[in-house]
Design a protein that fits this description.
This protein is mainly α. 71% of the residues lie in helices and 0% in strands.
C-alpha cells in the first residue's frame, strides 16, 4: 500500500472497483439492462 493511501480511501476505491466489475459481469451474464 502507498504511504498516502488511507484505509478508508482504499476501501472506497476497492468497493467501486468491485461494483464496476460486478456490473460488467452481470451485463455479460444477463445482457444489457437498458
Amino acid at each position: 500500500m502507498e504511504a498516502g493511501t488511507t484505509p478508508q480511501t482504499s476501501k472506497a476505491v476497492l468497493q467501486r472497483v468491485v461494483e464496476h466489475w460486478g456490473a460488467e459481469a452481470w451485463s455479460r451474464e444477463h445482457g444489457p439492462d437498458e
